[in-house]
Design brief:
The complex is a heterotrimer of chains A (104), B (645) and C (172). Chain A contains three helices and no strands. With 104 residues, chain A is mostly helical. Chain A has a single domain, classed as Helix Hairpins (Orthogonal Bundle). In chain A, helix 2 packs antiparallel against helix 3. The radius of gyration of chain A is 17 Å and the shape is elongated. Chain B has 26 helices and six strands. In chain B, the strands form three sheets. In chain B, strands 1-2 form a two-stranded antiparallel sheet. In chain B, strands 3-4 form a two-stranded antiparallel ribbon. A two-stranded antiparallel sheet of chain B has the order 5-6. Chain B is globular, with a radius of gyration of 29 Å. With 172 residues, chain C is mainly alpha-helical. Chain C folds into three domains: 83 residues, Four Helix Bundle (Hemerythrin (Met), subunit A) (Up-down Bundle), CATH 1.20.120.1200; 27 residues; 48 residues. In chain C, 72% of the residues lie in helices and 0% in strands. Chain C is built from six helices and no strands. In chain C, helix 2 runs antiparallel to helix 3. Classes of the chains: A mainly alpha (104), B mainly alpha (645), C mainly alpha (172). At the A-B interface, helix 1 of A face helix 26 of B.
Chain lengths: 104, 645, 172
Amino acid sequence: MIDQVPLTHILFLSTALFFIGAYGFLTRRNMITMLMSVELILNSVNINLVAFNRYLHPNIDGVIFTLFIITIAAAEAAVAIAIIISLYRKINSIDPEQVDELKF
Amino acid sequence: MLNASTLLLIPLLPLFSFLFITFFGKKHLPKASGIISVFILGVSTLLSLAVAYNYFFVVGMTNGIYQAISPMKLEWLRFSPGLSIDMGIILDPISVMMLVVVTFISLMVHIYSLGYMKGEERFAVYYSFLDLFTFSMLGLVIATNLFQMYFFWELVGVSSYLLIGYYFTKPSAVAAAKKAFIVTRFADLGFLIGILILSFHAGTLDIQTLIARLTTSDTTFYASATFTGFMGASSLTWGLALVFIGGAGKSAMFPLHIWLPDAMEGPTPVSALIHAATMVVAGVYLVARLFPVYAISSPHLLEIIGYIGIISSALAAIIACTQTDIKRVLAYSTISQIGYMLAALGVSQYGGLNGEGFSASMFHLFTHAFFKALLFLCAGSVIHYVHSNEVKDMGGLRKKMPITHLCFLLACLAIAGIPPLSGFFSKEEILASAFAHNQTIFYIAWLTAGLTSFYMFRLYFLTFWNKEYLSHHDTHEHHSEGSWNMKLPLIILMLGAVGAGFVPFHQLVTSDCQPYESEFHLNITLMAVGLSLFAIIIATIFYRKKNNLSDKISNNISQLYNFAYHKFYFDEMYQFVSQKILFNVVGAFSSWFDKKIVNGAVNTTAFLTEAFSETIKPVQSGKVQGYALAFLFGILGLIVILFFF
Amino acid sequence: MTAYQIWFYIIASMILGGALLAVTARKIFRAAIALLVSLIGIAALYYWMHYEFIAAVQTIVYVGGIVVLIIFSIFLTHNPGHTIEEPVSIREAFAFTGCFAGFAFVFSLLNRYSFEQTGDALNHTMQVADVGRALLSTGNGSYLLPFEAVSLLLLAAMVGCIVIAIKIRTHK
């Protein structure tokens, strides 16, 4: 049965996934890979929600939330890629280091 | 007749005229503005004469007392219940008397100016300023509220400033206008503080309520005003003294008299209206307005006011004996006569025969307005004729200008106090009340009266006799002494100067608004008239024919003469104080303080801000991952704080 | 060690390995494939937790949708063999420190708490019909309003994408 693996382990997994995503978001020098990192972060949250639902809550609210997050992630990815492509057309690069016009 | 709408018309008609000329007449009717303004003011004058008749002889008197009537009072600004600034009208003997004087003299000056100012480039502007002045002065005399009075007081100052500086291309006129404005404005500061002190203690700005509260010694208001004090005088006395300083500035009393002689740079009719007959007596009017408070609650202060008046009077008379500019002589004469009025107030008490000085002061104000305006207008005609202010350019004008000569002579006799001309009656009353209450003031006043006769006749002889008139200019344009509109006011005012003395002032205008029977003092009359006649005879000997007697005398007492000729060096003293002390020491220090400390502080702040911003600017790098990193560390820091502290 | 546990650790290493590779690989296409592996692993985790429906949705939306979208955009903006620049080294150091500290912190936090299960959550089984009912009904435990809001969001995102990415040709 599932209870042979404690809930804490799944939470460790999601935490690790979250910080891996955060690390990627902070260090990658390419907007598409930054977007991938964001997806990893969102998924770590999803894992949390589903796991809590499975282990602690005899209902399906967590799953519904996960569905919403997946939907929103899809929308977010679409908009982000639109922005990336538009930016690429303008400056012919998607390196975030080159996009630093918004400053003093 | 005495309803609000009729009374409002009196000040509002000149205001209308001012606005009309400023916004319309100046552009479209530059020539006709004068006539329009004369007609409007004529209506105003007739209204105030009718009001005066109604007030004094029909409705004013109830139970033997002239009641103060206040047909209109609009609340304008309200600070607290009871303490509000109102705009209103008050009618009592002195304000009605002033209404007549102001409108009548103003009308005469308006008519006279039609001829005198003819052909001036800013003719319409001149009339608009005259109307502004008339409006302000009327607002001042009918004020129900101390603050309303202050309001119009400043407006009067502004219009005086504008009119003195009328010839603004002349540097001396500009300087005189500034001097007048600054000196009076400086004094007005005292007035304002005085108003604040009085209204603080009385809890009202309304003049009648204030008088009632501060003269009844068993009220809490009176107790609070006399309880607190500063330097040995109660705050009530201080408030009254400060109010008087405002009045002294406007009335050119010693030591704030320096602006008035310079104010003669304005057009001569303006000098007649503002700087002789109306505005400069505002200080006297102010003291008279609050007279019960001065007389009942602070008699010592009133005595000091009397001394200030008589000292100014004597000093100005001495200076007037040495001056050679016809208008300056008249200006010092004005200071001298206003000093007389204040001295009369100073020796007066409240009520009955003891209040004779008050009545005499108002009487002298009334008669003085006529003969001094007449003197100025005559001087204006003379200046118009010879194109110079200096008496050395005049002389022998009696045949060239017979009407002016007659008017001037009668005015001189009036101011010298020769019976039965107007000045005789008012001066006699002043001297009588001074004799009864303060002998020191009486003797100084008596000597001053002699000096007055001397310098007036000196001026008269130097102008109209002394030598044959030699024209300095092309004589074609000077075939007559002036057009009808210059002569008519002279004749009307001459009738006033002759006849104004027969007005029974002790029946009409008294300190407690109750008529009293005046006494005739034969000995005082003989003393005063005798001295005047003696002074006139001396002046005749010295100046009727050209001779060197006067030079001999002045050489014998050359130090005193020079001292007086230089106006006792008052201007130099002020110059010294303002230039050497204020500008060089206080001003220089303030300037240094402002440049180094104040500016320095501002600059340092700016410099530090800029340096700091340069330091932290790189944080905002525009690099989105840098921001995210800062965000991550911020969140971590917050979590650590929340969990471990 | 039961089969359940073994499967869990296999799935977990797949997720974490894919994720690590996705954020470190120098070749962008390789990173995308690693992300794919990681996402499939997550779908497998859902399956392992007996949420077959959500596993299917994860597979369809992420694997079939988002990753494909990402790969498309990679092809639109790079040539396939493109190598990403090295990270800014100082920021990399800081990011590593921050992430490690955060992980350590949460790890210690998780160790401190025990999660007590309520009722028989472990035996509860989810029917797809339950999901449909929850999304399309009102009342307690129902999500009609968020559902509608999300559909509106999707529409707005679609319009926004077109507006942002559209290429307007201007002819002189």
